[in-house]
């Protein structure tokens, strides 16, 4: 996926209503997770990403901060994120508990 034509979200757009359900892609453009929920907003946003699993079953929730994920919109307006971390690196993070 060529992200060069995708627009980065403004910090005011980093909210639960915009980010929830957005896919997260790793450095090789493999889908590695989905945003399950969001804590805070703007530059202080914390995202809980479900990693692995199938159809939400067996996924591990991990926490990422806004500076670890570049959130953007593609040409069709679909929100997604890209991180430099791999699926294995995310799976190695501590499980997030609410």
UniProtKB/TrEMBL annotation:
Record region (Disordered): 77-98
Name of the protein described by the UniProt record: PRC-barrel domain-containing protein
Compositionally biased spans, kind Basic and acidic residues: 85-98
InterPro entries given in the database record: PRC_barrel-like_sf
Organism: Rhabdonatronobacter sediminivivens
Source species taxonomy: Bacteria, Pseudomonadati, Pseudomonadota, Alphaproteobacteria, Rhodobacterales
Gene3D superfamilies registered for this protein in UniProt: PRC-barrel domain
């Amino acid at each position: 996926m060529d992200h060069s034509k995708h627009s980065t979200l403004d910090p005011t757009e980093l909210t639960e209503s915009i980010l929830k359900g957005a896919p997260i892609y790793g450095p090789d453009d493999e889908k590695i997770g989905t945003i399950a929920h969001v804590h805070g907003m703007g530059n202080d946003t914390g995202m809980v990403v479900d990693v692995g699993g199938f159809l939400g079953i067996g996924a591990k929730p991990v926490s990422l901060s806004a500076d670890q994920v570049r959130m953007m919109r593609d040409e069709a307006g679909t929100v997604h994120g890209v991180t430099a971390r791999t699926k294995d690196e995310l799976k190695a993070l501590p499980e997030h508990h609410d």
